[in-house]
Structures are given as C-alpha cells and as structure tokens.
Amino acid sequence: MKFSLDEWFVVLLARTIRPAETVFHGFGSPCAQVAMHVARRTHARDMTLIEGATYAVNPDPRFIPPTSNDASLQRGAAYSMRFEEFFDAAVRGDVDRMFLSGGQIDGYGNTNVTGMGPSENGFKVKLGGGGGGCNLAATIRHLSLWSSRHRSGRALVEECDFITDMGHRTPSGDRAELGFTGGGPQWMVTELGMFDFPDGHARLTHHFPDVTVDEIGAATGFELRVAGDLRTVPPPSSAELSALRAVDSLGVRRSEFAPAELERVFDHDPAIGCAC
Amino acid sequence: MGLQPLRDKVVDVATAIAGVPDGAMIALGGGLSARLPMAFVRELIRQRKRDLHLVGSAHSIDVDLLVAAEAVRRCEESYVGFEQDLGLAPAYRRAAETGTIEVAESCCVTILAQLRATELGLPFLPVRGVRGSDIVRLHPEYAEVTCPFTGEVLVAVPALKPDVALLHAPLGDRYGNLHLQQPYVLDERFASSSARVVATVERLVSTADVAANGVTIPAHLVAAVAEVPFGAHPTSCYPEYAYDREHLSTYVKAAQSGGEDLAGYLKTYVYGVADEQEYRELIGSKRLTELARWAQSTADWKGLFR
Q1: Partner A contacted by B81 (CB < 8 A)
Q2: Is A37 exposed, middle or buried (0-12, 13-18, 19+ CB in 10 A)?
Q3: Does some domain include residue B292?
Q4: Residues B249, B269: Cα–Cα separation, whole Å
Q5: Residues B20 and B63 in one domain
Q6: Alpha-carbon distance A122 to A59, whole Å?
Q7: Which of B32, B93, B98 sits opposite A69 (nearest CB)?
Q8: Does residue B80 sit in the same domain as residue B181?
Q9: CATH number at residue B203
Q10: Packing angle between helix B38-46 and helix B61-68, nearest 10 degrees?
Q11: Is residue B21 part of a domain?
Q12: What CA–CA distance (Å, rounded) separates A65 from A67?
C-alpha cells in the first residue's frame, strides 16, 4: 500500500491531540478538521470534538464537505453548541486545543491571516481574516499550528507583516505580560517537518524522509533551531490511514497543498502498529 | 428601542429594504456560505444603497457582492472569503488593497462581547484577548481597562448597535416569529441588539407551526417579514437546501476577473431581475430542486460537493 504526503501530514496533526481533550478547529481548515476526525476514530476516542462552524459536539459525518458551515457536519451529533456557548467555553479556559494556521507564521508562533503588506492602503494582499483567533489564541490551553506552504519560503517568516493571532511573544510582550491564560503554540506541522516550542520558540524535531534539514533551513525565514535528537517523522498506521480515507472521501484536505506536494508518495509498511 | 407590538408584519423585500438609509450599520445574519440573507443583499444593490457599514462574523458572497456593487464604506467582520475551496473574496480583497473600503476586521469573540454590551444596556464589555494582536491597530475605538478587583489589564470594546439586522430563516409567521436550524451564528444576538430587525423566510406558516418547530427569534424583536423561497441562494438554508457550489464558483471566477465579467454577473443576477421570483426563474427549478435533494441519500448530498 502507498500513501501520500497529504495523508501523512493530516495524521501528524491528528497525533497532536491527546486523549480526553476538548478540541476545536477554525473554519476553512480542512486538514485540521480531518485530523480531528481521524484522532477521534483512532487514539483519542474519548476526545470532545467541536466542529469549527456548526459547533456540533462529536458528530459522525459521512464525509467532510468543502465548506465548514454545512449540516453534514452535524450528522449524528446529540448536541450542537450555540455560537456563544462555544466561545464562552473557549475564553474561560474549557477548551484544551485549537488548530491555527496562517499565510505567515513567525518563530514565536504568531500567525497572520489578515493580510500581507504593508502598502500605502494597508495591505498588498488582503487575506480572509482571523475568525475568533485573536481572542481564542489567548485562552485556549494549547495551540497546534500548521502550514502546508513551508517550501514556498513565504510562509515561515522572520516577522509577520501583521499579527492576527498571538503566539508565545509579540512586540507588546510575552504571554504572562499580556495576561493570557492559555499556553500558546505547542506543535507546528508543515509539509517539510515538525516543530515544538521549548522556551517559546519553534524548534525542528522531525523532518519528512524525502526532505533534508538544509532544504528546511532554506525555506524557513526565522532562525532554524534543531533538536539534538532530530528524527524522521513517524509513519502513519493502517488504522489512521483507513480512518482518514473513510472520513475524507472527497479529499478536501488536498485543497491546502501545492500540486507538487501531492505527488509525494510513500510506501506503507503494514508491520507498523497503531501509534496509539 | 422598545419591543415590537404584535401585528401583521408581512411586507415585500423591496419595501423592507426601502427603509434602510445610506450609511446604515447593517448586521448580516448567517455565516460562511450558510443562511446568508441574499434576497436582501440583492435588493440593497438594486436600490443602489451606499456607504453601508457591514457587521458580522464569518461571511462570503453577501459581503463580497455588496462590495462589488460599491455599496460598502466599512467592513467589520471576522472573516470574508470562500474558505480553502474557492479561496479569497475577490471584490473584498481588491477593495481592501486599493483602499476603497475601510477594513475594520474584527473577531467573533469581540463582536459577540460588543453586541452583548448593547443587549445589557452597557457602554462596553472587557475581553481577555486582542492584546498583542495587530487587530487593535484597526480599531482605535478599543481601550485598555484595569479590573478594579484583580488589577488585570483587559481590552474594553464598545457596545455595537446595528441600525438594521437582515436575517433569513427557514420558517416564520406573519408576526415575525422565526424558526432557525443550528448553527444560529449571531442571529439571536443581532436580533436583540439591532434597532430594527427584518427577516426573509422560506415559508410563512401559522404561529402554531413555528412554535411546533421551536421559536428561535420571537416576534417582539422583529419589525418586518417577507416570504422568499430560496432567499439564501446561492448559500444554503437547511433543512430546505444545500449551498450551490457551482453558482458560488461562477461568481468567484467573475469577481476574480473583475471588470466586465463582474459587471456581467451583477447585470444578470441582480440588476437584470426585478425581484426574487424572476431570480428563481433565472436559476431554474431544475437546479433548485437538485439543491433540495440533499436529504434523499448520502450519495445525493455528497454529489452536491463534487
């Protein structure tokens, strides 16, 4: 059996979720959304999964549609939160993890989903916007970041043109100085490798086997810190791949990647057990 | 403001929109590409409204179309776009990059706090986040406040009181009782914080029928109601119909290309149709029936997203 980079990427995102956590994804984030359903069907069956725009709690969708606000994402949910019910839970500290991405991400895990610039009118490129991020990033316990455009050299930057969602440190201060109750970015998964945030700054802990550390360094705008025990990313299990293929039969996760990344295919070793 | 008396509030869409002044702060119901008040949006454009201040959470073609028609002065949403699927909102993006609209991008939590301040009759409410985010730079009206009990520094956000809320619901009665299917998004908050609430509904039914389904927004908050089947098209209105991805894609392509292509979309689907009945005829009963077939089987439902 073979599997593709987008599948491996989603499995790595799924593994950032711990059992029993309450987890949320932002809308328009198919990789994170699929990852949550994979986690709930493999190693984190007791997690509380909250859908990103329907606020359905633990739904069992037959497929993931290309829009986050669709009734197919409420199927099988015994309960859906109201908008304010979810955001209240998140700001008071009852949500353990949220997935966040951005057109730009800096070494402290600040993200920009508002706009590239600057220009005289404000933005050279106006992006969609941050949803609830600039409050939720302050209070949700852990953040799992991701970027599917690391290789472009424009995504992981020395400094964001605009900070929408706060990471471990902004020019206005660190999280303690800003009075934030959440822990900030814990992991960051890219199509090249995986980072953690010891001391509040990204550090490469894993790389994909078809990517070298030099390539990652060349694509990274901030100072690349590398873990002493750098490894290749752990392979997906059969259970994870089959959960992923079942829930994302429309392949919405693939919309996040450049076409060349989708060509990256790997051989699966059936002897590999479930990472759970 | 006062609550609305119990009386027959049925109007047509043109009459409901005629009461919206240029420069009004407008709250848009629904979210992303679901249950957006598109019949009202089209009518705002037909009546050539100008300088609108739009407020909402995460939106798509409603905001983009109003910006494309040059009806908007200020955008205060948490997101405007078509997600990963169809990408950035072309007209909104262009207007933000050329400076023809004021970008007052906000956050779902902040807007919620600002509406709640109005509901509570308070001048502001504090939020814990936002500090350290450049979103603050887009909002000189925010201030910092020190909690008198704990000494914590929080961000004070002023009460937000929309002049008009435009909502769309699957069911309603003549008095303005509305039934919605979740997610309600901010519709309930808009209904109790806006000076005037007007709604379109897929079907006008008896009060007993609305009550049997559950009243989400009560008549005493609603000033006018119009019956408009497929009034959210091309966005979804469950349980009636799914969104029209093909139509949204047609719009996004026209808006990306701009110029004559975008003008052509507006001419065909907005200026060129006198009312919503003509709009439905233009889209065609074949297509509308397909969108309503989502409930027949998983294959039918999934087929709408391919």
Answers
A1: yes
A2: buried
A3: no
A4: 14
A5: yes
A6: 40
A7: B32
A8: yes
A9: 3.40.1080.10
A10: 0
A11: yes
A12: 6
Tell me the two tokens of residue B142.
């925010």
Sheet with strand B79-82: strands edge to edge: B58-59, B79-82, B87-88
Q: Say whether B133 and A166 touch across the interface (CB within 8 A).
A: yes
Count of A–B CB contacts within 8 Å?
A: 204
Q: Are residues B22 and B91 in the same domain?
A: yes
Say yes or no: B193 and B78 in one domain.
yes
Distance of alpha carbon B94 from the chain centroid: 20
CA count, 13 A, side-chain hemisphere, A124 = 7
> End of a domain among B179, B211, B232?
B232
With respect to residue B202, please indicate whether it lies within any of the assigned structural domains: yes
Identify residue A102 by its one-letter amino acid code. Answer: G
Are residues B191 and B76 part of one domain?
Answer: yes
Among B232, B250, B272, the domain-final residue is B232
* Pairing verdict, β B52-55 and B58-59: unpaired
Helix (H) or strand (E) holding B254: helix B245-257
- The secondary structure element, H or E, covering residue A112 is strand A111-112
Tens-level pLDDT at each residue, chain B (306 residues): 589 999 999 999 999 999 999 999 999 999 999 999 999 999 999 999 999 999 999 999 999 999 999 999 999 999 999 999 999 999 999 999 999 999 999 999 999 999 999 999 999 999 999 999 999 999 999 999 999 999 999 999 999 999 999 999 999 999 999 999 999 999 999 999 999 999 999 999 999 999 999 999 999 999 999 999 999 999 999 999 999 999 999 999 999 999 999 999 999 999 999 999 999 999 999 999 999 999 999 999 999 998
Q: Do A125 and B133 touch (CB under 8 A)?
A: no
Q: Which domain covers residue B145, as residue numbers?
A: 126-158
Q: Does B230 touch chain A (CB under 8 A)?
A: no
- The secondary structure element, H or E, covering residue B26 is strand B25-28
Asked if B92 and A126 come within 8 Å (Cβ–Cβ), the reply is yes
| Burial status of residue B50 (CB atoms within 10 A of its CB: 0-12, 13-18, 19 or more) | middle
Does B225 fall in a domain?
Answer: yes
Q: Specify whether the CB–CB gap between B183 and B164 falls below 8 A.
A: no
Both B87 and B220 in one domain: the answer is yes
Put simply, the answer to whether B85 touches A84 (Cβ < 8 Å) is no
pTM of the model: 0.97
